[in-house]
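worker-03 picked up job from queue 'complexes'. Input manifest follows; two sequence lines, order preserved.
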Amino acid sequence: MANSAQGELRGGIDLGGTKIEAIIVDDANTVLGIARIPTPTTGGPSDVATAMAGVIQQAALAASVEVARLAGIGVGSPGTVDRQAGSVSGARNLPGWTGSFPLAAKLEALLGRPVAVGNDVEVATNAEHVLGAGKPYDSLLGVFWGTGIGGGIVLERKLWLGRGGAGEIGHTVIRQNGRRCTCGRRGCLEAYAGRAAMEIRARKLHEGGMHTDLFEIMSQHGHDRLTSGIWQRAIESGDKLAHKLVDRAVSALGAGIASAVNLLEVEAVIIGGGLGVRFGHPYVERIAAEMRPHLFVDDRPPPVHLAGLGDLGGALGAALEAPRRGPALTAISGRLDG
Amino acid sequence: MANSAQGELRGGIDLGGTKIEAIIVDDANTVLGIARIPTPTTGGPSDVATAMAGVIQQAALAASVEVARLAGIGVGSPGTVDRQAGSVSGARNLPGWTGSFPLAAKLEALLGRPVAVGNDVEVATNAEHVLGAGKPYDSLLGVFWGTGIGGGIVLERKLWLGRGGAGEIGHTVIRQNGRRCTCGRRGCLEAYAGRAAMEIRARKLHEGGMHTDLFEIMSQHGHDRLTSGIWQRAIESGDKLAHKLVDRAVSALGAGIASAVNLLEVEAVIIGGGLGVRFGHPYVERIAAEMRPHLFVDDRPPPVHLAGLGDLGGALGAALEAPRRGPALTAISGRLDG
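worker-03 finished. Artifact:
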């Protein structure tokens, strides 16, 4: 894409359950190269790390730079991330990822560059705050509507991590003793609005005799699960079951997000994630409308925005985590001058 | 109580819908005198302010000090508080309180001392954080289980106020399209667990033919509503309807508080409020047990504590808000020395 890049370059890798996406950015966070591969479905963490190293090399190739020129590489990973140790545990959607794996150390060994790891939802929230739709605000709630429902919180212009696992808006109880969630609990927002839960529900209703084209569209496009694109096609073709389930998801999101706003009173809400980005503005407005009846401070509903970085938010957020040369040099020169 | 008080003295007034409580404290927040009167049920904000001035004078008398000796007086008020302006609006439980009223200015005119006003739930949360069960923690959620369900949030050892109205955990949606809340919305936690909502529900079930001694106990004690003490007596005498409604409230609190913990991952939860303090430790443990099935990070549930300051938390929190002489003098001497 660009072969005359100036200044310090960084890499960002968005590790997802379906795809791994890597980018190269410059000082201004301009994307110089992108590469994308499907996430390995077999093997273990070490194989995933090898695939990640491959895709960052492809992104560097696309940007016409050497990986060796990168100041550092940042990773956004699912699961529980220990930022200090650079390790990841509990990444349920990745193959054979049992226990904790030293992802940063493994990638550093493969690539010869410093690597930092953050949680995928947290880095995507930070990206929206620093570069995207959240730029004007000091506090915000990022809601990522995809396979699950992820959430990230920015307060006083900083990510709020709690004891490390904050932001789990997907597991807000919106219906006590309600539907079984993919997490095993009952009545979670994600049990009504997560794409995985919506697919389970669609299959059940379809098997129970309700008509839907969802699974036919899925087969036609050679998929084995209901992607965001399949949901969109079914909605556009007026599929009643798809409409029913998406309407239910939107209403659940409205209740769950309004509850979070009642608690935190953030300045804005940002909607991202696979389904959020795919459905876009009209659905962001529908979510805002479904929030309104539940907002306790109802004379100043917070603005609800579509994620400004679209699908790239995860990789850009990862790149924001990447270790840099700059600050360290400044610190040293500061010490020499002082 | 004490007539040889040393150092700087402050007043605190907890303005409630039922009672107004005032205290005098010293530098160490030791309570030197207490007074309590019923909240006026007629008149308007000006009459309430006059009653408040009277009760702080009674508390000063009890402490054997002059109101003129107080460095300042703090107030915890229901409704929406503008801290800068010292004004209160939307205090629905107080007589004739329509629009905004300059409570601090009115009290300063009546008492001749500087007055600061904060929201009642916020100051009570701060009191638990600074002086009570929340002392060991950098972050916590205070839940005040009374007529309504109030909430206060401390993050990084500071109250989180959002855009001014944060903490409304009582209006977390725990059941979409559920029971009508006293706020007019549907399915709020407060609609299941607030004492006002529980009384409405008890009346309805009683009128529908269910047996309960709740209203008989109420008449025997000369009350016209179901106080925390009446609920406790009914529970202790094995009243089935009272048990049913309190069980429902505890389960609703478990779901609502767990959702807030999933979002914020605070280090601890503190349970206060009229019903919370009255029911005490066994019910705090029951709430903690009801939270557990909903906690997403389930290997380290946050400790759930009973409010350490009991009924006095509101007045102590108010006293913590009181303007002080000390810091101002220090600042001046700092400037002179500098």
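worker-03 released lock.
Residues 328-338 of chain B have pLDDT under 50 and may be disordered.
The first strand of chain B starts at residue 9 and ends at 15.
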